[in-house]
Amino acid sequence: MPGFHYYSINVDGISINDPGSETFYGVSRQYSGIEVPESGVDFYQPKNVPHGEVRERWYHSAITESWCRCYIYTPPGYDAVKTKYPVLYLQHGGGEDERGWVVQGHVAFIMDNLIAEGKSKPMIIAMDRGYASKPGDPQPDPRPPAPFAAASPLTGGSGSAQPARPPGAFNTFEQVFTTEFIPLVESTYRVIADRDHRAMAGLSMGGMQTFQITMKNLDKFAYIGGFSGAGAGMGEVPFDTKTAFNGALANADAFNKKVKLVWLGIGTKEPERMYNGVKSFKAALDTAGIHNVYWESPGTAHEWQTWRRDLVRFTPLLFR
Asked: Which of 47, 152, 186, 259 is the most buried (most CB within 10 A)?
């Protein structure tokens, strides 16, 4: 199967990493991984085009009283000009960390190629660690919460039953993200700091976090994307758009005037509950009159090939 896959070697019933391969943080620990080329597909491969940079940055969170690492993609020529850029805040999934989009997702190559082809606006992409807890709180479980737990470690999910996530884990991340991470990005990099030039998207757990954060902060975000993940509780049928997100979707006309893009992506081979959850969420938005763009990745599951395909279609729609 083409794409990126995690794997392990079974020795007498014990799963170990392949000593002959690189490891990647993707199943709540370092895990062996392999990239299987997809014939005729090179949008996430390096090409002879101008390249941007991925910058590692550390910051101290007063909320969690801990050091946090983030990654920032700056577009080609960033240091040679004084241009200000729009920002996409892009989140990883459960079981992964802030390296996911950079290493497994090849976000820099995807953006370099899109920008060179004139398909995407040059932008800054900011990627933070999606787990946060306050001192004394239980550590957040990095595995994907239902309905986002994939059935197999080959596609990035833990493949095990999911315990309850510590109360407030998502809320603490939201606080860090909105009051510390966004101000850090906007004070450090040349960005256009208004809602029309601010987007947020994420995969799986990151998609849930995206909807949780943006729906509470529509004064800050005009573009929203969920890749194999959307609103918390979206697996419920029917999804009540009148009460969800504290009523953010209740007035479709007002919402559609304010939000320029809601993107929903899913792989056709994803676990049934996940696939049906995203479909039901999309159907509820349609019924409520909420404009959205829905796209299915043919033949892919809960995996990086799905999310790469989402990103290469999502970013050209931003900041137009």
From this structure: 259
163 pLDDT band (50/70/90 cuts)? very low
Q: Quick one: which of 95, 49, 57, 94 has its CA closest to 73?
A: 57
Q: In the chain, how many domains are there?
A: 1
Residues 6+ apart with CB under 8 A from 93: 100, 130, 144, 148, 156, 202, 203, 204, 205, 206, 207, 228, 229, 307
CATH number of the domain where residue 152 is located: 3.40.50.1820
Q: Does some domain include residue 26?
A: no
Q: What are the residues whose beta carbons fall under 8 Å from the beta carbon of 264, sequence distance 6 or more?
A: 226, 230, 278, 281, 282, 285, 292, 293, 294, 295
For residue range 250-307, list pLDDT tens digits in order. 999 999 999 999 999 999 999 998 999 899 999 999 999 999 999 999 999 999 999 9
Give CA 116 to chain center in angstroms. 23
What does the alpha-carbon distance between residue 34 and residue 246 come to, in Å, rounded to a whole number? 42
**More confident of the two residues 289 and 141:** 289
DSSP notation for 156-197: TS--SPPPPPPTTHHHHHHHHIIIIIHHHHHHHS-B--SGGG
Q: What is the pTM of this model?
A: 0.91
Amino acid at 90: L
H helix runs in the chain, sequence order: 100-103, 107-116, 169-176, 182-188, 205-216, 252-258, 272-288, 304-314
